Every structure is written in C-alpha cells, then in structure tokens.
Amino acid sequence: MPSTDDTSGYRLCVRAHEHVVAVCGREVDLTPREYEIISTLYTRPGWVFSAEQLSGDSDDADYSPESVSVLVSRLRHKLSEVGAPDAIETVRGFGYRLRAQACEGGEAAAMEAAEASNPLRDASWDLQEAVLAVEHAGTDDERRIAVEALEAARRVIEAELED
Questions:
Q1: Is residue 76 a contact partner of residue 68, using CB atoms and an 8 Å limit?
Q2: How many CB atoms lie within 10 A of CB 160?
Q3: Interval 111-159: pLDDT, tens
C-alpha cells in the first residue's frame, strides 16, 4: 500500500506486513485495537467508516461501537505527538475518515486505474453487503434476493480466483 499524503503535508504510512504505523518515518506506538482502526481507515483514505464498521465483528464487549470514539481519541493524540494532529476526521452522524489528498502525477493515475478495475475487491464488497442483507432480511422475498446476491458475488470471486 502506498503512503498517503494528508492535507497538512505529513506522510502517514501503514506497513501491514509489520503491523507498523509511521508518520514522516517516525513509528507510532499503538495498541492492537488502535492499529486495527487506523489500518482500516488507511485502506480507503477519504472514505467514511461507521463506528460499527470500525469495531468489526468483535464479541468483546469492551470493543463496541461506543468504545471506538475513545480509541479514535487516543489515536488522534498519538498521531498528534508525531506531527499528524488532524489525520482522522469525524464526519458527524456518520463516522470517521482518514484525511488525504490524491497522490500527484502518475501515481494518482495508477491508483485510479487500480481502483476502477478490481473485480475481486468489488465482489468482496458485494459479498459483505449481501451477508448483511441476509442477516437483516425480514421477508422470504428479501431473503431470496439477498441469497441470490450472495451467490452472484460468490461466482465472481470464484472466477477471479481461477484466473
């Protein structure tokens, strides 16, 4: 994953293979849950993630959507200490996002092209939405439609993995 330039000009980098977050080359000491939040936000700079999405499917009562605001507050404090005070933005009523500018030059075009043509990623998102639809389906028709969407996403993922 490329590093992301935010509006203040600092460079935020999440090195997933190392479970490291760095700002301008300075590593930030994070708890596992803080790391999960920043790495989720980092996967889609500018996208808004709800507290429910950031808390994940954790069965841990201490890691509820309500606790996300506390974790984000701690994250902001730690990022501020290394020069990135406004990296995480609250979108009132919706959630949180990582503030970022588009990359310059060819890198931005490459990122846009990758973003536009990633069927596996798109099918994975469709699959996730279909699972939620099945969980929240109230009528038999809603369940049937949700199951059809699950099957369609499964077929796309299977085809992409075969290639």
A1: no
A2: 15
A3: 444 455 567 777 777 777 777 777 778 888 888 888 888 888 888 888 8
